[in-house]
Design a protein that fits this description.
This protein is of the alpha+beta class. It has one domain. The protein is 21% helix and 36% strand. A 5-stranded antiparallel beta sheet has the order 1-5-4-3-2. The two termini are 20 Å apart.
Amino acid sequence: MLYDSTSLEQQNLSGGQVESTTFAGHEAKIHREALGAGDCSLLFAAGDSSSVSLDATSNDMNTDAACQLAQRAGELVEAKLPKN
């Protein structure tokens, strides 16, 4: 989901585990298990006041697999974002 008026820092990352990282040159966060095992979200900055959130779940409760899926989807979405 694209949040055109919500920066990465304004995203609600309650519950679960949050890891700061970079993704395709963007400031990013990985939010693991906010809803339980097998849940992962990749959030990254898409500008000064916008961000993208990609959520994935794994049927077999494999959080790492869900995070890999979120990152693969993120690559497709990031490639379509306007370049600054």
